[in-house]
Design goal:
It is a single chain. The chain is α/β, with parallel strands linked by helices. It folds into 4 domains: 204 residues, Serine Threonine Protein Phosphatase 5, Tetratricopeptide repeat; 107 residues, Alpha Horseshoe (Serine Threonine Protein Phosphatase 5, Tetratricopeptide repeat), CATH 1.25.40; 187 residues, 3-Layer(aba) Sandwich (Rossmann fold), CATH 3.40.50.11380; 175 residues, Glycogen Phosphorylase B (Rossmann fold, 3-Layer(aba) Sandwich). The protein contains 30 helices and 14 strands. Strand 1, helix 19 and strand 2 form a beta-alpha-beta unit. Helix 1 packs antiparallel against helix 2, helix 3 packs antiparallel against helix 4 and helix 7 packs antiparallel against helix 8. The longest helix has 26 residues. The mean pLDDT is 95.
């Protein structure tokens, strides 16, 4: 009941609208509740209250309130659109589509209903139908920039890049300061490989809407991919200032600081990231977490939460594609697929090429490689293409690639990226193959329901670490990492030509800069202190990293000139430099993987410590298979003592190098025929279980 002192319903509605527009949703909720007590049959007040409840994520209350609004005003298109949006926000995309189609039958061609219906169809990954709905809506609202942009987004999902670009440009013509249109232009340009132009588009979006944290984050990703690391770090910092809880920006900033050897605030950032993992944020990059000094349980928790977010995101598209997998005939070869961004002159390609060549004439296996990066014209890509069936899928989005893999009839699909490089999570979550395997590039469990197996060995995943792996384990009887025995070592230059002393001990650590954390660096400095005249040979890092490490050495009492930096070189030339190194000193918690294999193949002994996670145990696995257990240390003290002892004993170093030379030819580590045989047995075990209808299970070969 109203009285003379109660404002009109229109006045109250206007007050609520103003609260909604300035984001005061709690105030709007209280005002709407009070207003509706005075005007319980007012449809507009109920509608505005429902919008407020949606903003507060009180989805059930919003649905109930908007249903009341629709009953009170059965002809109100606004109420129907709001109710459809509420159903969509509550996770019921199919219900929203059904309701909005019914509303459309009552108001044929209404652009607002078509727009809302298009949004629901997009959420359900029904992109073709969404495009049709948006296109029809543009006839009724030809000057609506948001419609043009939504149409562009649908075209982009369908892979129609030119049409997406056209409609984005149309949206910007209608609304030149449309930040979301600049953002979508950035996505389109990124899809086309035009990263510099894409960066500028995202920067424009950020300038137009400086309070949106998504824009500086996207800028940071592009700058990081383009090697502009300080600018990328600054962009991530902007994103974090706007949203301190953004786990993506936090983990990428922390990882960039490690890459740059910029250690200020490192501990605080790491603690924030670990707290986010413990809270189940689901946005922390599992790959960046590998470089943190955490246990295997924490790494698994991070991976599982991240995977759960990907699983939820891809659910509509997975439902639309709905792949089914026929079991192959018993006598059919096993068709295996491998997806990677590294089928070029890249660590992945260098590791696997000799294995694929060893399997090239195997009639029981049909090997297909799906390369997500274009051909670099190098010898590794050519060798891989000669030994397998190579598919250049660099132009395909995850949905298109999933369809391609499914159409190829792959039975067992290996993810050679995991959460590293060009993350394949969305692709594998679509389940294009009946059996899917995590192997090689991501050293750990992916915590993902779409992965059936992890290919490992008993050193990197011993029995006590089994609880921290979500996949079923297939453990090879040798190191899980294939090690190319065809790598060419160029003619080495002299030590003097490398800037090294002729007689002093040369310690090397050519690990990536993000693995050289303050604790690992302090350990290296202690070794230099106790080996007079020795030098530490490091791989040159990005954007001032070398100068920062020299400054850190000076702070530790080590003359900065005792750090020597190796520039990036072609692989054969890089391998030749190991001839001038006496001992490779490894890092923790993330130790040398491909780099350790390179050093050992080129004849340089590797000293490592065994870590408490997969990422910290690979060098141990390599050394144990090579027959050099004496180079595996249990802790920092043993590592420093062994490095110091060897560094001060030139004869011992020469003996060790000679022993390595013998073991390299006699050990099974570089036996690619033997590795290929073990790999074949692993694949056959997975295939056999699948073909007889058995669920994946742990297998020790």
């Amino acid at each position: 009941m109203t009285d003379l002192f109660t404002p009109s319903s229109q006045a109250l509605a206007q007050q609520i609208i103003e609260m909604i527009e300035r984001g005061a949703f709690d105030d709007a909720d209280r005002a709407a509740t009070e207003a509706r007590a005075h005007y319980p049959d007012d449809a507009e007040l109920a509608r505005l209250h429902g919008i407020t409840l949606m903003q507060l994520r009180r989805h059930a209350d919003a649905m109930e309130t908007l249903e009341q609004a629709a009953r009170l005003a059965p002809q109100s298109v606004e109420a129907k659109c709001n109710l459809g949006s509420a159903r969509l926000a509550s996770g019921d995309a199919d219900g929203a589509i059904e309701y909005l189609r019914a509303a459309l039958r009552e108001s044929p061609g209404h652009p607002a209903i078509l727009l809302t219906l298009g949004n629901a169809l997009m959420a359900a990954a029904r992109y073709q139908h969404a495009r049709e709905s948006y296109a029809m809506a543009t006839h009724g609202a030809p000057t609506h920039p948001g419609l043009r942009l939504n149409l562009a987004a649908a075209e982009l999902e369908l892979g129609n890049i030119d049409q997406a670009r056209l409609h984005t440009d149309e949206a910007l013509q209608l609304h030149p300061r449309f930040d979301a249109a600049y953002a979508l232009r950035g996505r389109i340009l990124q899809t086309q490989g035009k990263d510099a132009e894409a960066t500028e588009a995202w920067l424009l979006a950020e300038r137009v809407s400086p309070q949106n944290p998504q824009y500086p984050f996207a800028v940071g990703q592009l700058l990081e991919d383009g090697g502009q690391l300080p600018a990328a770090a600054a962009a991530y910092e902007r994103a974090l200032r706007l949203n301190p809880d953004d786990g993506r920006a936090l983990s990428q900033l922390l990882f960039l600081r490690r890459r740059l050897c910029d250690w200020h605030d490192l501990d605080a950032l790491s603690q924030r990231m670990q707290a986010a993992v413990a809270a189940g944020a689901g946005t922390i990059s599992p790959f960046t977490t590998l470089a943190e000094d955490v246990d295997a349980a924490t790494l698994l928790r991070c991976a599982q939460d991240y995977a759960a977010a990907v699983e939820l995101q891809t659910a509509p598209l997975r439902k639309q594609q709905s792949f089914t997998h026929a079991k192959p005939a018993p006598d059919n070869p096993i068709r295996i697929g491998f997806v990677a961004d590294g089928f070029n002159d890249h660590a992945t390609g260098l590791l696997v090429v000799a294995m694929f060549e060893a399997l090239a004439n195997d009639d029981d296996l049909d090997i297909h490689l799906f390369a997500t990066t274009p051909d670099d014209g190098g010898s590794i890509r050519a060798r891989l293409a000669a030994a397998t069936t190579m598919h250049d899928v660099s132009a395909l989005n995850p949905a298109q690639l999933a369809q391609r893999i499914h159409d190829t009839g792959v039975e067992i699909l290996f993810d050679l990226n995991g959460y590293s490089g060009r993350d394949n999570a969305e692709l594998f979550a679509l389940r294009p193959a009946p059996v899917q395997v995590n192997w090689l590039a991501f050293p750990g469990s992916m915590g993902a329901p779409w992965l059936d197996y992890l290919l490992a060995d008993k050193v990197i995943v011993p029995d006590e670490m089994r609880p921290h792996v979500s996949e079923k384990l297939v453990r090879l009887p040798r190191c899980y990492q294939p090690n190319d025995n065809t790598r060419v070592v160029a003619q080495p230059p002299s030590r003097a030509e490398c800037g090294l002393p002729d007689e002093a001990t040369v310690f090397a650590c050519f690990n990536n800069s993000y693995k050289i954390n303050p604790a690992a660096f302090a350990r290296l400095m202690l070794v230099l202190q106790q080996v007079p005249g020795s030098v530490l040979w490091l791989l040159s890092g990005p954007d001032g990293a070398d100068e920062r490490l020299r400054a850190a050495a000076s702070a530790a009492g080590i003359a900065p000139e005792r750090l020597v930096f190796l520039p990036r070189l072609p692989h054969a030339e890089y391998l030749s430099r190991y001839v001038n190194a006496d001992l490779f000193l490894d890092t923790l918690p993330y130790n040398a993987h491909t780099t350790a294999s390179d050093a050992l193949w080129a004849g340089c002994p590797v000293l490592t410590s065994t870590g408490r996670t997969f990422a910290g145990r690979v060098a141990t696995s390599l050394l144990l298979q090579l027959g050099l257990p004496e180079l595996v240390c249990e802790d920092d003290e043993a590592f420093i003592a062994m490095a110091t002892q060897l560094g001060n004993d030139r004869d011992a170093l020469r003996t060790l190098r000679q022993h390595l030379s013998q073991q390299r030819t006699q050990s099974s580590l570089f036996d690619m025929q033997g590795y290929a045989g073990d790999f074949r047995r692993a694949v056959q075990a997975m295939s056999a279980r699948h073909r007889i209808g058995r669920r994946p299970a742990d297998v020790d070969l």
